[in-house]
Amino acid sequence: MNLSSLFVTVFLTAASLAWCQSETKRYLYISTPDAAQKEGRSTGPGILVFDIDQGHKFVRRIEIPAFQEGLRGFSGNFKTHRAYFSTSNRRVGAFDLETEKILWDRTYEAGADRSAATLDGKKIYVPTGFWYSGDDSGFLVLNGDTGELIKRINVGPAAHNSVVSLNGRFLYFGTRMMLSIFDTRDEHLIRQIKDVGERGIFPYTVDSRNRIGYVCLGNHVGFDVVNLETGKALHRVFAGKEKIPHRTHGAGLTPDEKELWISDQVGKKLFIFDATKMPPEPKGEVELSQGGHGWVAFSLDGKYGWSHAPDVFDVKTKKLVATLKDETGTPVSGSKFFEVHFRNGKVVEMGHEFALGRK
After folding, report:
1. What is the CATH number of domain 24-350?
2. Which residue from 312, 352, 318, 358 is spatially nearest to 333, judged by alpha carbons?
3. For the whole prediction, is pTM greater than 0.85?
4. Tens-digit pLDDT profile for the chain (359 aa)?
5. Neighbours of 312 (CB within 10 A)
6. Can you give the residue ranges of every domain in the chain?
């Protein structure tokens, strides 16, 4: 081999190695067992990891004994590369996604439902739980580095789902029949939208401009459309040709905000609406293999749709393209999950457990 050929070979080998080292791997992280859902449970507590780009193939299980208490919340934070979890035992903790170590976990006098972190990870907002209706129902503000309680804010009964907007400015917070909006800088109340959701604020989603929210209904399959800037309810939309008389638990906007998907977990369906129209118009539906707690989320690139079932759908074609299975080949699922991207062992991007608009 002459010097020129040797140089080319070395260059190509080095380039190939660099490409392999810099390849981004996309994974779906599902926490188990889900305290709100028996369907699709996998044996053993922890996190199930699936390779999104390899047909959602099972990669491995990360054992976390504390998860045996049952997950009430599982949310990620890109800045701190952590997952924040809450359990039925009033436990809240921080899990480092890169070192795979629990950095802290504490139990609190109040309950611990689905929490949310500020973009910098300095504060964690923890609802006191949908099951609690005391006068002091609301949320805890925790130090994101230590779990220490900073303050407690009373909002209303049955406090549960909390979301920090993608721009980090707003905390959306659900209590019974009321969606509250807080400023994350100092937790002062900006606005409250009352009498939406029929009988409670079940899962909801918002657009990327924080102007429109979609709130699941509690007595029928459908949703309320609300103006987040004025606090006015705009429309009530029902799924199906006839009203379906059970609650909706799960609503998600595709990243391009062209479609809104909602969950009919009792009917084992996801209903799809054209979100480019106001009010959104029916566009189709997909069948699910099981019932469950109800949830909807999408991959960051908008290609895949996930729910509380093991079924993975192609968002464009609405076809079933994969089934989530654990190491035993058993279909598994839950309603507490999010997407994580790694490169060279470092977290480089993260999805969101709520399917917020990203247009």
Report:
1. 2.130.10.10
2. 312
3. yes
4. 444 444 334 333 433 333 344 699 999 999 999 999 999 999 899 999 999 999 999 999 999 999 999 999 999 999 999 999 999 999 999 999 999 999 999 999 998 999 999 999 999 999 999 999 998 999 999 999 999 999 999 999 999 999 999 999 999 999 998 999 999 999 999 999 999 999 888 999 999 999 999 999 999 999 999 999 999 999 999 999 999 999 999 999 999 999 999 999 999 999 999 999 999 999 999 999 999 999 999 999 999 999 999 999 999 999 999 999 999 999 999 999 999 999 999 999 999 999 999 99
5. 22
6. 24-350
Residue with tokens 């809240």: 92
Nearest to 92 by CA among 123, 63, 61, 120: 123
Specify the amino acid at residue 36: A
Cβ within 8 Å of residue 272, ≥6 positions away: 259, 260, 261, 282, 283, 284, 285, 286, 318
